[in-house]
Design a protein that fits this description.
Blueprint (H helix, E strand, L loop, with lengths): L5 E6 H6 L5 H5 L5 E5 L5 E5 L7 E5 L2 E2 L23 E8 L3 H4 L6 E7 L7 E9 L9 E11 L4 E12 L5 E2 L5 E2 L12 E15 L2 E15 L13 E20 L2 E17 L9 E17 L2 E16 L5 E19 L2 E12 L3 E13 L4 E12 L10 E5 L2 E4 L7 E13 L4 E13 L5
Parallel strand pairs: 4-7
Antiparallel strand pairs: 1-6, 2-3, 4-5, 6-7, 8-9, 9-10, 10-13, 11-12, 13-14, 14-15, 15-16, 16-17, 17-18, 18-19, 19-20, 20-21, 21-22, 22-25, 23-24, 25-26
């Protein structure tokens, strides 16, 4: 209730009650969250009227998507999440979180929180299957495995794996007996795909205050691509099968001390796309690499004041062996601070700012202010102003072909300037044991806004 943004939680009991196949299926019933599906069966998650480019997806606070992960197919990272048996809960924050997480969190944040390594060995094996009656929809088979436990009194290990196989649809015929070519964009995609996801975490707890772990995750999605996005013609610059590969490795230190919480992390993200061709028929290698180092300190100064400060460094690399031979690096540094101050007992004021520096676009300061007034324990009014800043990705800001679809080629623009915006929000929320109600009015004003294809 006191948070300057709206927060929803999907518990592990909710996840176990239904056969969720993806992150989108677990979130599509939440208010203020819009879920659609792209050509790779991956959910596109958007909030507050903004596109999915402004929704940040995290797993245990670690990024799953960056500006450069928008390869040839967008939003595919939303399909690469741990098995539901490994998830403790999913936190969904609706509203601008750009101060703490950057401009790609202007719409909101989805944080998938996994279960801690238990003191005793245990696991879960799940087999889910969806068999459809309609011949124009393929059936789905999804086995999942989660196993975790201690190796010693201070060291633990967690292993996870899942695959999702969606079969090819059968022929669909009209009243005249003619075969109808299935179109894309439906809830269940009209093509077959195979997703593999494997991960492991090694954790070390030297004492009650510190947790250190190394986590590595590998995922590969292979799907048929017989149609264009319009579902009418073959794409002549792709093979019949496309593949998207992801490697996500990180080392994290999480400390809980008397003065506050301190989290430090090193992360490596690698995305590759296979099956895309050049106009001459040669393979077109598309690759994105991101190295991220971050540190965040949360201080409880007094009972009525909480301060968050942090820093982040990111080395971005994008390579596309198209005719333009795009191969570029970029350095990005961010410093941020956010202070939550309870001025009076019913009044909470949040003030924050994020400073960004890029060796390509220079520096930018994005402040934010928010006010929450608690009328009762169950009813409050909240509102605020937030500024946003989004620098174009390497592929967007280069004069190179970014992708090819049925309508033609998408080409970047080296003259692009960073996108800037101001958002205004006013709303009310009522929440008790009988009823939940909220209403928000949000206005976004963009000085420059990218149109992405």
């Amino acid at each position: 209730m006191d948070a300057p943004v709206s927060v929803s939680v999907v518990s592990k009991e909710d996840l176990q009650s239904r056969p969720y196949r993806s992150l989108g299926e677990a979130l599509e019933f939440l208010p203020g969250v819009n879920v659609s599906y792209n050509n790779t069966a991956s959910p596109s998650i958007s909030m507050r009227g903004l596109s999915s480019a402004y929704t940040l997806v995290l797993i245990d606070g670690m990024r799953q998507n960056t500006m450069n992960t928008q390869l040839v197919v967008v939003d595919v990272y939303n399909g690469f999440i741990p098995p539901t048996s490994a998830i403790d809960r999913i936190e969904v924050i609706r509203g601008p979180m750009s101060t703490l997480y950057g401009s790609d969190a202007l719409g909101g944040v989805v944080n998938v929180i996994t279960k801690p390594v238990p003191k005793k060995w245990g696991g879960n094996i799940t087999l889910r299957s969806i068999i459809t009656e309609s011949s124009n929809q393929g059936s789905t088979l999804q086995p999942q495995i989660y196993l975790a436990g201690p190796l010693s009194s201070k060291v633990g290990l967690a292993l996870r794996a899942q695959t999702i196989h969606h079969g090819a649809p059968g022929e669909v015929r009209d009243n005249l007996g003619q075969v109808i070519t299935p179109s894309r964009g439906a809830y269940t995609p009209a093509f077959k795909y195979f997703l593999q996801n494997y991960g492991a975490r090694l954790s070390w707890t030297p004492n009650s205050q510190n947790l250190i772990y190394a986590d590595v995750d590998y995922a590969f999605l292979d799907y048929d691509n017989p149609l264009t996005s319009a579902g009418t013609r073959p794409i002549n610059l792709t093979k019949s099968s496309l593949g998207i590969q992801n490697i996500n490795a990180n080392i994290v230190h999480d400390g809980k001390y008397s003065f506050g919480n301190w989290k430090n992390s090193l992360q490596y993200l690698r995305w590759t796309n296979t099956g895309v061709m050049l106009a001459n028929g040669a393979d077109r290698a598309v690759e994105a690499n991101d190295f991220i180092a971050s540190s965040r300190l949360s201080l409880t100064l007094w009972d009525y004041n909480t301060l968050n400060v942090g820093a982040e460094y990111r080395l971005e690399h994008f390579k596309d062996s198209s005719l333009d031979k795009l191969n570029q690096y970029r350095n990005v540094v961010a410093l941020y601070a956010e202070d939550e101050l309870q001025i009076l007992e019913p009044l909470i004021f949040t003030l924050g700012a994020r400073y960004n520096f890029s060796d390509q676009f220079g520096s930018f300061l994005a402040p934010r202010a928010y006010l929450v007034y608690n009328i009762t324990d169950s009813w409050n009014i909240k509102g605020g102003i937030a500024t946003g800043y989004r620098a174009a990705s390497i592929s967007e800001s280069s004069d190179a072909v970014r992708g090819v679809a049925s309508w033609g080629a998408a080409i970047g623009n080296s003259q692009l300037k960073p996108e800037s915006s101001i958002s205004y929000e006013l709303g009310t929320m009522f929440d008790n044991e009988y009823i939940d109600f909220f209403a928000h009015r949000i206005l976004y004003r963009f000085q420059r806004r990218y149109r992405l294809y």
